[in-house]
Design brief:
- The chain is α/β, with parallel strands linked by helices.
- It has eight helices and 17 strands.
- The strands form five sheets. A nine-stranded mixed sheet has the order 14-6-9-3-2-15-16-1-17.
- Strand 11 and strand 12 form a beta hairpin.
- Helix 1 packs parallel to helix 3 and helix 3 runs parallel beside helix 4.
- It starts with 5 loop residues before the first strand and ends in an 11-residue tail after the last strand.
């Protein structure tokens, strides 16, 4: 079994990446940055109107250190300002495309255990965006690694097949899409949709914005192989690095807050952990 490395670095990812890492180092970047105006006491807060300008220099570093075959997953959500959704996420998507990123896909994280609530003009948020960006149309993707049980639909839908179910039957509305239902006969596993139904329970009560371990695990399985390198430039409590360790991937986590670096270190396997103090930079040499 190959040695797995996990490294934590304290500092602004803009500076840390520029100083410490070579081009084309990482196979996947998975992160959830501070949302606009959120966690002001923790990260200072970035106004929605200034968010794109704040994020783009960091995204430029992400592009530089990501391999051409790699993927960047951005977990982010709009906020309400003056009674309406602020478009900073949409503006960021367009700005990243102008920067050279390909907006390949959008996954939705459905928080399936979200508790009820309402406001005068809206209901409780129960989902967040996980945006997929790539440098190239050709990137590593291992779809079989995230297959799921067929589900109860197969018991009824595949029980009695019609003549159009055993051939590639084109859509009646002329959409250009076709299907062959018979392809799913005698299968135990199917490919998932782009909606991820994951509970918000994180097992970590010491960070204000942790995502569940299953979220980075899913993307790590989909876009990397054992021994690959994973980066979370806003690592927080270390969930992404823990997921990488669990799956036999190397990882680097960066956070500007020392208390979160310490929190992440406490939850990670000491045998695989190398804590890099501020000012002690070195390159990660990927295989």
């Amino acid at each position: 079994m190959r040695e797995i490395k996990t490294e934590l670095l304290q500092g602004d990812c803009l500076e840390v990446l520029a100083e410490a890492f070579a081009d084309d180092t990482f196979d996947v970047i998975i992160t959830s940055p501070p949302y606009a105006d959120s966690r002001t006491k923790t990260y200072g807060g970035i106004h929605p109107d200034a968010y794109v300008d704040w994020f783009l220099p960091r995204a430029e570093q992400f592009m530089r250190v990501l391999k051409p075959s790699g993927t960047f997953i951005l977990n982010i959500k709009e906020k309400v300002v003056n009674g309406e959704r602020h478009p900073y996420v949409l503006e960021l998507i367009l700005a990243l495309r102008r920067q050279g990123w390909l907006w390949t896909e959008e996954y939705i994280w459905h928080k399936k255990n979200c508790y009820p609530g309402k406001w005068p003009n809206r209901f409780r948020d129960a989902w967040e965006r996980c945006l997929q960006f790539n440098k190239s149309k050709k990137f590593k993707m291992f779809q079989d690694a995230v297959r799921v049980p067929m589900g109860s639909w197969a018991e009824t839908r595949l029980k009695s097949l019609g003549k159009n179910d055993v051939v590639r039957f084109d859509s009646r509305v002329g959409s250009g899409f076709g299907k062959n239902i018979a392809n799913w006969l005698d299968r135990d596993l199917a490919y998932p949709t782009n909606v991820l139904h994951l509970a918000t329970e994180t097992g970590n009560k010491n960070h204000s914005a942790s995502f569940p371990l299953a979220l980075p695990e899913w993307f790590i399985k989909l876009f990397t192989e054992e021994g690959d390198w994973v980066l979370d430039p806003f690592v927080g409590s270390g969930t992404t690095c823990q997921a990488a360790q669990n799956l036999g991937r190397n990882s680097v986590g960066i956070d500007i807050k020392r208390e979160y670096i310490d929190l992440a270190r406490a939850r990670l396997s000491p045998a695989k952990l190398s804590l890099i103090e501020s000012g002690e930079r070195r390159e990660v040499n990927s295989p």
